[in-house]
Amino acid sequence: MKPLRHLSKYFRKYQAYLWWGFVFVTLSNLFGIFPAQAVRVAFDMVQDNILLYKCLSGFMIQEEMYDIFVGVLFFFAVLILVFNLIKGGFMYFMRQTLVVMSRHIEFDLKNEIFTKYQTLPLAFYRRNNTGDLMARISEDVSRVRMYSGPAIMYTMNLITTAILIIWMMLSVNVVFTLYVLIPLPFLSVSIYYVNSIINKRSDAIQSQLSALTTYVQESFSGIRVIKAYGVEQAMLRDFEAESEQYKQRSMSLAKVDSLFFPLMMLLIGLSTLITVYAGGMAVIKGSISMGNIAEFIIYVNMLTWPFTALGWVTSIVQRASASQKRINEFLTEEESTDTGGKKPFEFHREITFNGVKFAYTANGRTVLNGLDFTLKKGQTLAIIGSTGSGKSTVASLLTRLYSVSDGAILIDGENIDAFALDSYRQHMAFVPQDVFLFSDTIFNNIAFGLSSEEIPDIEERVTEAARMAAVHSTITDFPEGYKTEIGERGISLSGGQKQRISLARALVRNPEILLLDDCLSAVDTVTESQILSNFKTVFEGRTVLIISHRVSAVQGADQILMMEDGTIAERGTHAELMALKGAYAALYQKQLSEAYRQG
Ligand SMILES: Nc1ncnc2c1ncn2[C@@H]1O[C@H](COP(=O)(O)OP(=O)(O)OP(=O)(O)O)[C@@H](O)[C@H]1O
Ligand SMILES: [Mg+2]
Q: Which residue has its alpha carbon closest to ligand 1 atom 17?
């Protein structure tokens, strides 16, 4: 139960719903009891008067009495109907308050979790898989909702019904009451056990279903590879195996599931049987009336559902508690290691890497091995080097996606961690190596989080950024232009088109510092030189870090770093590095001759 304490702040927030819910539960139960009493009165009346009626046989008055009799019984029937209607009305309001409350809590909890997700560091996302994160916010939250709504509602119902009815019963006859109540605890306990088994098997089905879904999903996204390799039959075989598992588990659930209702009916039937038997004996002894038996049968029927619910509620609470525990694990997870200081971002002179060392995991391989370099404000620094030499890692560290393991990154002599993270990132735009576009319009992918309220001329800025990234004419060629949907819902773009949209996304933010990680790798040399000539205006007055494999993209930079295995092997301007006749010069010659061969 302990993990569920996390919810108490929500219960406090929505306590009005809770109180009204309690009032409605009590009222609906009260109006459930009245019909039972009406039935007893009617029964006893019939019994008392039937003798009198027989005595009057042959008299005129017998006819008259019969009419009055029928009239009174009709009145009772209407009364019972009205009571039940009122009870139904209150039950409606009970759900309207308690179930509505649980929906509010569900909404708040989902928002809380999603907000938390956004603040967690990248390291967290490497540790946890996507399916798990999804399950927390969907499945686990809905289990918690079952607790905060239905479970609480049925518990309130159980308590008020039990108190009211058992009190009524005891006031009639104590011994008879005890007899009648005997089967009910068995009902609760057995429902609880059956339910636990049902839950365990449903979980197994659920996990098999998600395995099946993942498999199908992957086969859709990888359909081109599957067809190209002609492995459809093998895929089908694997699918059948997964599907078979699913079937087996579903069947095993069906076996227990079908036990649930018969078991409930058996125990309810048993209660009724005992009521009639023990009641009959008591009537013979004269300790209760016939009407009491009828009344008790209704009571027993009213009690069975809450007692069934007790077993059910217990397992809901257990599951909710386990789910909330998993949610809490995430909610108490340490937030980004570098939410940083409070200083607003300021940049006047230079960015300095001071003996920066870095490993992705605590005892992992050192990826950067003591980097020292300075990037002056307004200048362009280029990094070139073989794959895996640590170029992207430099960009990740500068964007503060990770923190350095040793050494420091300084801006005007101030450690970057001292700046408030949001202010820091506002001044920086990063084009990552692996392009990511959302299933949305091209316009929204470029504007990305900027709204027309903040920036009135957003349309012009997006078009301008797209022009700079040499993708404007491609976009306007689409029938729907900037409104074209991309991704799952829309068209597919080529690798180079995606890269240029991703570049436009960075340019539209008009950043002070621009980080470009291999952002032209998928465009042809003609487009590349077009973009590079646009860059001359883009880079003006900006501080730029550009990463590339191609000499053509870096040769205009004020300073070029040639990286090898996490260290800087060579550094200088293009002319200086050429004069050095080292690795850079060799790379230049190689790429030049390749370009020459391609003509
Ligand atoms: N998220 C990560 N977790 C663990 N190791 C990583 C991670 N990203 C990169 N690495 C490792 O760090 C090293 C440097 O990677 P990095 O991405 O910086 O290389 P790169 O120079 O950008 O290469 P490329 O030119 O192929 O983009 C590689 O050996 C890589 O395996
Ligand atoms: Mg890289």
A: 392
CA of 385 to the centre of ligand 2 (A): 10
Span 268-323, pLDDT tens digits: 888 888 889 988 988 898 888 888 888 888 888 888 888 888 888 888 888 899 88
- Domain 2-331 fold is ABC transporter transmembrane region fold (1.20.1560)
Q: How far is the CA of 368 from the centre of ligand 1 (A)?
A: 10
What's the pLDDT tens digit per position in 93-136? 999 999 999 999 999 999 999 998 888 887 788 777 777 788 88
CATH class of the structural domain 338-427+512-599 = alpha beta
The alpha carbon of 37 is separated from its chain's Cα centroid by a whole number of angstroms, namely 49
Same fold: 338-427+512-599 with 436-510 = yes
Domain coordinates of the chain in residue numbers?
Answer: 2-331, 338-427+512-599, 436-510
Atom of ligand 1 nearest to the CA of 385: 21
Per this entry, what is the length of the chain? 599
Ligand 1 atom with minimal separation from the 563 CA? 21
Best residue among 360, 394, 546 to mutate for probing ligand 1's pocket (most ligand atoms within 8 Å of CB) is 360
Residue 466 confidence (pLDDT): 92
The answer to whether the CB of 356 falls within 8 A of the CB of 407 is yes
Provide CATH code, domain 436-510: 3.40.50.300
Q: Which residues line the pocket of ligand 1, CB cutoff 6 A?
A: 360, 367, 385, 387-393, 433, 518
User: Which ligand neighbours the alpha carbon of 123 most closely?
Assistant: 1
Longest CA–CA separation in the chain, Å: 136
Q: Please state, as a whole number, how many other Cβ atoms lie within 10 Å of the Cβ of residue 387.
A: 8
HEC string for 352-401:
EEEEEEEECCCCCCEEEEEEEEEEECCCEEEEEECCCCCHHHHHHHHCCC
Q: What is the pLDDT of residue 338?
A: 53
